[in-house]
Amino acid sequence: MSFPTMSHETLRPAATPTVYFIGVTTGSSSIQRVFPVWADQLGITGARLQGIDLPLHAPAEHYRTVVEFIKRDPLSLGALVTTHKIDLFRAASDLFDHIDPFAIMMGETSCLSKTEAGLACHAKDPISSGLALDAFVPEGYWERTSAQALCIGAGGSTIAITWYLSQLSKANDRPSSIVVSNRSQPRLDHLREIHEGLETKTPFEYVLALDPWDNDRIVTSLAPGSLVINATGLGKDAPGSPITDAAVLPKNGLVWELNYRGDLMFLEQARAQRDRLAHIEDGWIYFLHGWTQVIGEVFNVAIPAFGPSFDELSRSARAAR
C-alpha cells in the first residue's frame, strides 16, 4: 500500500492474520518473498505480510492513521517499522497500551504487536543490532585495538547501535569513542539527550555533516581499526552514499552497510578499498535478526537467534531472495 494521501478507507480490514511492514519502498524488500517461506517453517501458515509505504518524515496524521487501523482491526496483529521508527513513535505514542523499556529509553519503535492488554510498542533494534554486531566484531576487539566507531546517520538504528556498543557491562571492550554524524541538527540533539540518560563512560561526539565531503573528513580522521557504519537510508530508500569516492576508510577497519538492497553505493565504495580493510559487512544478517525478532513477537512464536534453526531460516531466506 502506498499513500500519497492518507485516509481510513485506504487501509482495508485484514482477512487473514496479517503483519504490516511500514517503510518507504517495501515492495522491493526480500521479505515479500521470504515471509511466506518462513511462515510455513514457523507454523503460521496462512499469515500474510502487507507493506505500507510512507514518505520520509510523513505527516503525523499518517502515522496515527496506520496505528489506529492496526489497533482496531482484529486480524491486523502488528508491524515491523523501518525508517519511520522515531517519527511514528513521536506521532502515535499515546495510542499504545504498552511501551517496552527500550522504546521508552530510545524514543522509537521498530515493532508493534498485540497482547491481552492491547497494542504494544517495542524497540527491537537494541537486540537485533547487537546480534548482528556480535556476528562480525570479534570478542575483545575494542579493548585490543582502541578503535573508534562512526555511525553516519542519527536515526533509530544508530540509537540502538550506540547504546549496545557503550554499555558499561562490556567493561573495556567498548569503542574508545563513538562519533555520530547527521545532516539534521535536531536528530543529533535528540540522540545527545538519549546518551546523556545512559549509564556509560564512552565518549560521544556529534557532528553536523551537511554533505558527503563532511563525512569524508570524519572518516579520514578515524583511528586505525575503526568501525564505519552507514546508518542512513542512502543506498536503499534513496540512491547514493553518505561519503564520496575520495573518502579514505580506516586502515584495518571494519565497515558495516546496514542496507542489504538498493544501489548500495556505500558498500561498493568499501569493496573498492577492501585491501586496506579487515572486514566488510552488508545488511543481510541485520535483516534476518530484525525480522525474526518482530515475527516472533507478533505471532508469539519462539525463534532462536542462533543455532541450527536460525541457520535453516537463513538458508531458506537466501534461497527465496
Topology:
Layout: E1 18-23, H1 31-42, E2 48-53, H2 60-72, E3 76-81, H3 85-92, E4 98-99, H4 101-106, E5 111-115, E6 118-122, H5 125-136, H6 141-145, E7 149-152, H7 156-165, E8 178-182, H8 185-196, E9 204-208, H9 212-221, E10 227-230, E11 253-257, H10 265-272, E12 277-281, H11 284-299, H12 308-320
Parallel strand pairs: 1-2, 1-3, 4-6, 7-8, 7-10, 8-9, 10-11, 11-12
Antiparallel strand pairs: 3-5, 5-6
Descriptive keywords:
321 residues, alpha/beta, Rossmann fold, 2 domains, 6-stranded mixed β-sheet, 6-stranded parallel β-sheet, 12 helices, 12 strands, disordered N terminus
Q: How would you describe what is shown here?
A:
The chain is an alpha/beta fold. It folds into 2 domains: 8-123 and 286-320, Rossmann fold, CATH 3.40.50.10860; 127-282, Rossmann fold. The protein has helices spanning 31-42, 60-72, 85-92, 101-106, 125-136, 141-145, 156-165, 185-196, 212-221, 265-272, 284-299, 308-320; strands at 18-23, 48-53, 76-81, 98-99, 111-115, 118-122, 149-152, 178-182, 204-208, 227-230, 253-257, 277-281. The strands form 2 sheets. It has a 6-stranded mixed beta sheet, with helices on both faces. A 6-stranded parallel beta sheet has the order 9-8-7-10-11-12, with helices on both faces. α1 (31-42) runs antiparallel to α12 (308-320), α2 (60-72) packs across α3 (85-92) and α5 (125-136) runs antiparallel to α11 (284-299). The longest helix has 16 residues, at 284-299. It is globular and about 55 Å long. Residues 2-9 have low confidence and may be disordered.
